[in-house]
Amino acid sequence: xxxxxxxxxxxxxxxxxxxxxxxxxxxxxxxxxxxxxxxxxxxxxxxxxxxxxxxxxxxxxxxxxxxxxxxxxxxxxxxxxxxxxxxxxxxxxxxxxxxxxxxxxxxxxxxxxxxxxxxxxxxxxxxx
Length: 128
Fold this sequence. Notes:
Largest sheet: 3 strands, antiparallel
Distance between the termini: 54 Å
């Protein structure tokens, strides 16, 4: 028999065992019917397994994606400050600055790309 762990409706495949595992609290284990190829990305509701919708997956992963993107902006803030210093010192930094502006815009535009997959985002390459 195959079993899955259910926590708040989310499914995680446990494996095969001759007896149903026992969990405490908000985690339960359920027997998976033989004809169901259970995997993560499924939900269990009303006694049935179903694949998560794209909207459900996006809603679940979007906060982490957004936090990662914000972290990148914060980690590259030094470039903006360096550029301001270079402008003040009249140092020509146009090519480097254009590369960084393109990078930041690519970060903003990621979710607008037709092939964007929040489960496996392709991050733009950071300039040197």
